[in-house]
Write a structure and sequence with these properties.
Elements lengths: L3 H23 L9 H10 L3 H8 L5 H13 L3 H14 L4 H13 L3 H14 L4 H13 L3 H14 L6 H11 L1
Helix pairs in contact: 2-3, 2-4, 3-4, 4-5, 4-6, 5-6, 6-7, 6-8, 7-8, 8-9, 9-10
């Protein structure tokens, strides 16, 4: 037989256990952690560049760096875009988002030689990447190398004849001829 003290101890433990269980059952469940990469890309695609960049700061990896750089470029923050663009394009030279952000940031920072080198690496990895040619042409234009610029703009137009920039590129080319 159990002593009254022992029974009281068991009852106290049982009550404590039950109160903990009922307290945890009534506690709200924690919402799942947000998917920073997916959410950041969605914001970028909606044109919410500042929000996308802030969300992507929490995300890691090549795709996160690519979209972070692209968002910064859209906000004309070229110096801030340079590092994540370089990281993403170096890790994955065929990532079009990264390469486009890299080209635009380096050209706007007037780092033409670096742009030409890095974009050439991407073109070797992915010869059909239209915007790599577009931004490399811009870098050649900055270096006053018209023949190389024309060649890259021609390739850009072959690969992306309906791109938003195509009309301006055609005008530039016709003015040179």
């Amino acid at each position: 037989m159990m002593s009254t003290t022992r029974i009281a101890s068991v009852l106290t433990l049982s009550m404590a256990f039950l109160s903990c269980r009922s307290a945890s059952a009534s506690m709200p469940l924690r919402a799942p952690a947000p998917d920073s990469l997916k959410d950041g890309i969605a914001l970028y695609e909606k044109g919410k560049y500042a929000e996308a960049e802030a969300t992507l700061k929490e995300a890691k990896g090549t795709e996160a760096d690519a979209y972070k750089a692209a968002a910064l470029v859209k906000m004309k923050k070229y110096e801030e875009a340079e590092e994540p663009a370089k990281a993403a394009a170096s890790a994955e030279p065929s990532n079009e988002i990264a390469v486009t952000a890299l080209g635009e940031s380096l050209v706007n920072l007037k780092k033409y030689d670096e742009a030409i080198d890095m974009l050439s690496t991407s073109i070797k990895a992915e010869p059909d990447m239209a915007y790599a040619y577009f931004w490399r042409a811009q870098a050649y234009q900055g270096k006053k190398k018209a023949d190389r610029m024309i060649e890259d703009f021609d390739t850009f137009l072959k690969l992306a004849p309906k791109a938003p920039e195509a009309s301006a590129v055609r005008q530039t080319l016709s003015a040179l001829k």
